[in-house]
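For reproducibility, we list the full input for the pyridoxal-5'-phosphate complex.
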Amino acid sequence: MAAIEVWEPTTHPFWHGSAPMSYILNEAGPADMWVRGEGAWLIDASGRRYLDGRSGVGNMLLGYGRRDIAEAMFRQATELPFVCTMRRERSTPIAFEYAEALAAAAPPGLTRVRFAHTGSSAVESAILMARSYQRNLGRTDKDVVVGLRGAYHGTTMTTMAVSGLPVLHLHFRPMPAGFKHIPAPRSADCPLCQGVESNEATCADRLIAALESHGMERMAAVVVEPVNAVSGVPRPDHYLRALRDLCSRQGILLIFDEVFTGFGRMGKMFASELSGVLPDIMCLAKGITAGYAPLGAVVTTDEVYDVFNASESAYFAHASSTDGHPVSCAAGLATLKAFLQEDIVARGAEMGERLRGGIAHRLAESPLLAHVRAIGAYIAVDLVDFDGRKASMLTKRYLDQACEERGILIDYTPETVMIIPPLILTADEADLFAGRFAETVLSMKTDDVSRSSVRPGTLRGHR
Ligand code: PLP
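The corresponding predicted structure, in tokenized form, follows.
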């Protein structure tokens, strides 16, 4: 607490976040610090409580203050906090036990677990694994990795390159070679078919044409989120089926980025269960430890694994010293146990529907509400401005700020307003959240939203 009292942002060594520095230096203050969390609530330095409709940034699926997870981490940290798994040493019992439990919980056929340390490092590992896989099979020209436009996959150069977000490329260009992007489906009707009669055949044709335009014979892998995180829109089942079929026929690995969607956010343990389409590689992070420790995982098939075991000298030549950190694995195992014992996924989906219904009911007459959708515990509120056009980022920034003043935290992207609470939200909390959110929207007036009245955007808000 002492550090907060003497916090002087112009001289303090701490370099904060991804909001404009002028705001951090001139306007943010001690009250902009979180000091404690309890259940679904965050508490700031002034003691004010906020209901967390962001789960941190999608990580805190079991809420704050879980002693079972903290104690599991403590036990591991006192027993054996770290070993190096990059040389020849054996791993730790906790990594073995957790890998086994995770593989058992994973969709069928995903039997092998390679740990990473963040979501970005999991996707990075998956991409490098796919390129090495192709090379090990003698397909030395198959090295192009394809991503979908509008998708976000992480902060390393490789994961930014596969992300279909020009803003990331602009900040840090030039991007590495060997990455291509294809149009992404954005609604229940595949937009590859937009403007023409939408059916499964035309969708598949357009997908094939998009991939062919980049040369399918050169492709090592396609990376896709089964549900797009920034919009909350599932990729249509027929799109995923066509992609799966194409990848299998062309020897391309299908990578599902479930960093955000995994662990119950979408009403299923993994979002691939929504379509039943299975990837060759699944990337996990965020909710994997319910936010209590950094961890990522790449879960793959025997078929992929065996290609790295095909000769005496073969191996996957990529590892970071903190991949599969034992304390993080302890957090992961305790998290998984909680998911299974407390029926967390069903609970989250029930609260998601309650929140959606509460918001829809309270805002039924509001001219600003276009649509409120829930998929599991992801509630996407599509708003319009007073002129009827899709709500601007300025409006969403205003709403974000006004919600915060009412003690609830929301998130937003160019696509939608996201409410992604911890899955352990209670019914009373869901009702309270819906009430405060609706009050905030109903209180908005035409001239409330102006650049001078709204805090600046952040990197997260922009992508
Ligand atoms: N992939 C997706 C879909 C994400 O939403 C994120 C983070 O928001 C990442 C990858 C990167 O994960 P991390 O921030 O843990 O590196």
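The pocket of pyridoxal-5'-phosphate is lined by residues 118-120, 123, 152-155, 225, 229, 257, 259-260, 285-286 (CB under 6 Å). The mean pLDDT is 90. Both points were considered when choosing residues for closer inspection.
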